[in-house]
Amino acid sequence: MKAKRFDQRIIIQERTLTKVKGVQTEDWSDFHACWCSISSLYGQEVYKAIEVNLENVLSFTVRYASNLKDLNTKEYRVMWGSRIFNLIATDYYGFDKRTITIKGKEVV
Does 29 reside within a domain? Predict the structure, then answer.
């Protein structure tokens, strides 16, 4: 297996909902900053993504951290530079506690 280069810096953000005078607002705060390896979809993944309108999807592979075990698609997102990606899937590879792959769709 080829070793991945963790040479890109990302910030995983957590969503918090607050109510001010009955109006619900959404705020994002930094949850976890880390180095990762970024890759685009390839092979059959590309064609499947096009079929369901997920063209702007990237995979972020990060080293396992215990605070990332509860990542979900509703309360977290990834910031890479000025680009924002909503989480669409997380893969823990059988919970071997080595790496986690996060797939995110860019907010355009």
Answer: yes
Pick the closest to residue 61 from 2, 108, 16 (CA basis).
Answer: 2
Strand partners, 79: 11, 84
| pTM, 2 dp | 0.83
pLDDT along the chain (108 residues), means of 10: 79 93 92 94 58 75 93 95 94 89 91
Total domains in the fold of the chain = 1
In a domain, 1, yes or no: no
The span from the CA of 70 to the CA of 99, in Å, is 14
- Residue 9: half-sphere exposure toward Cβ, Cα within 13 Å: 3
* SS3 assignment, position 44: helix
2 within domain boundaries = no
- State the residue range of the domain holding 19: 8-106
